Amino acid sequence: MTVTIDMGTGAGGAPALMELEELLATRLLVQGNSGSGKSHLLRRLLEGAAPWVQQIVVDPEGDFVTLSDRYGHSVVEGADYSEAEIRRIAARIREHRVSAVLSLEGLDAEAQMRCAAAFLMALFDAPRDHWYPALVVVDEAQLFAPAVAGEVADDARRASLGAMTNLMCRGRKRGLAGVIATQRLAKLAKNVAAEASNFLMGRTFLDIDMARAADLLGMERRQAEQIRDLERGQFLALGPALCRRPLSIRIGPVETSARTSSPKLLDMPAAPTGEDAQMLLFAAAPVEPRPATPAPPPPPPASADDLIREIARPLPMSSLLDRPQVSGAEREKIISTVLGEIVAEPDSAYRSPAVLFQDFGVRCRMHGLADTGHDLARFRSRLSMARAGLTGGIADDARFAPAAEIARGLEEGMQGIYLLLARAALDGAPCPDDAEIAAVYGTHSLGRVRRLLAYLQTQGLLAIHTDMRGDRRIGLPALGWITAAAAPTTTGE
């Protein structure tokens, strides 16, 4: 399954498409001077990806908070909370897969670095069960990963740089796909920039920035001059999620807008001159009357607990996709179909359940089902049954219920093995070989499969019989079922 985002137009007016799954695996770096259209590009990307993947934005100027109006992003005002509260909120954002914008507006540079560091490290340190795929967009990344020490405290700079390095270097295995934007490549730490495999380079004028951009794009230095001539909203693109050779693309329009915009020229008013101007400039300040009643104080910011409760509230995806609800039978049919598609892919057995859960949600929405009604725990249970060939039919057979009940009490990785053997035993089918069991468990090691079967036998869950021909039968003592004989795989580790 491929999900693409239309970023605008490329050569000859052809659509410039970005593969979302490839982007999640390879990360993105955007560079361009102020006014080149970086924020517009990021907004186009976020709007296109909103229905498909969780998004987390670190926003130093508060420009992206308007995404909440249309796409339901939760807004976290960094200035209103302590570092401990920021870490708690970030952990809940990962746990509940809520798209969010961390607005750092109103904080000085050092406070922004401390807040962003605490937030990003909490995302990075989330438990393995919460490693869902997410786009982590950091605007003005040179503020948080500076190439050289500045006027901020060393501990704040080290914490922020460490968090950004973890995001770009080690975040992929935790489901975090870094998308960073910067005005100056020369001001961005090289070890952070070097981890991106996709690049969108906008207009820049300084030789040092053009040289670094040309190096990243694989262009000769003399070709770098064209970066000076790029128009606003025009970028040179390169990377596996975009194109294999440098390509000029123009970013398309967006549906939301920032709270601030570029200045526009207006007609000058008729200004006073001479003595009239002197009177206006230097007249005594009028005495303002004291109000009869003081103005009410502004409402206090939401407490961290209130914000966390808001994050934990499930966001209906139907509001994003505007699709009608389906009946219970149709829902189950779609879920069974999607599970069958997932387990049919050759590499699905070796991908983490959190990544497959994201894939499951995207596929269901593409089939017209906005709300699957499955959390990660329920999905894991259904995935174990699907890997054992139980996407429907026999899974609903009342005779199979005792096997399903026993499997629920086992560790997650062993549920699929038990169900696979139970299905073969109930059907009187030949005993699955080691390779088939390995695919259900999610390993290439046949030796590990044999050790797992031996462990289940010591726990009294299986009884393995091998006859003189070397054929194997596996019984399930608690159920009184046994498979037919078949030769196990005897090679490979």
Automatic annotation (TrEMBL):
<dbReference type="Pfam" id="PF01935">
    <property type="entry name" value="DUF87"/>
</dbReference>
<dbReference type="InterPro" id="IPR014588">
    <property type="entry name" value="ATPase_Atu1862_pred"/>
</dbReference>
<protein>
    <recommendedName>
        <fullName>Helicase HerA central domain-containing protein</fullName>
    </recommendedName>
</protein>
<feature type="domain" description="Helicase HerA central">
    <location>
        <begin position="13"/>
        <end position="72"/>
    </location>
</feature>
<dbReference type="InterPro" id="IPR027417">
    <property type="entry name" value="P-loop_NTPase"/>
</dbReference>
<dbReference type="InterPro" id="IPR008571">
    <property type="entry name" value="HerA-like"/>
</dbReference>
<dbReference type="InterPro" id="IPR002789">
    <property type="entry name" value="HerA_central"/>
</dbReference>
